[in-house]
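**User:** My hope is that you can spare some time for a protein that puzzles me. As I understand it, each token names a local backbone shape. I would be glad if you read both lines and explained how they fit together. The protein I mean follows directly.
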Amino acid sequence: MIFDLHPSWQKPLQSELKKPYFSDLNDFVKQEYAKHVCYPKKEAIFAAFDFCNFQDTKVVILGQDPYHGPGQANGLCFSVNEGVGHPPSLMNIFKEMESDLGKTYPLSGNLEAWAKQGVLLLNATLTVREKEAASHQKQGWETFTDAVIEKVSQEKEGIVFLLWGGFAKKKAKLIDAKKHHILTSGHPSPLSANRGYWFGNKHFSMTNEILKQANRPLISW
């Protein structure tokens, strides 16, 4: 296979990985990477799962597509590689974090540190062609990532799901709200944020308050 899922995720998702659509998706991705420049790098396609194992997952943040500009995508939603300029949505995420927590705006846009603490930074579609937004949508990725959300909902308890924007909010139907915490707001993109739908949501402090009440380790955002 072109990608291998982290062992901690293979057991809960083993039935999904054996379905025909996933084999077709694997073939599609293999062909795309052979014929075109695609992002993220092959070894980072499943980075969200590599850095955040199933047992440690406490928070889920949902994105839509990887960045399609050169050198940006690193397999974690909203995150960019070291040394890469911060895209507008990530800038607004950091600005809200600044005002919510009183933290200094970070130099690096790489969110690996969040993932290593149990934040699953999951895009709905995990690959994309260079400079062709949404080019890998409706090829099977959404089926797979929906199954990931459902499996987390079914097998874990007390997860904080952060659903930012209309696309992410639609995923609420996959989550058992009786077992988990669902926080929603507008998307951090300038279009939404500048209309007042993003800033002031205080999701970072709210998430840590939920974890504190459950006697779970807080996230160092």
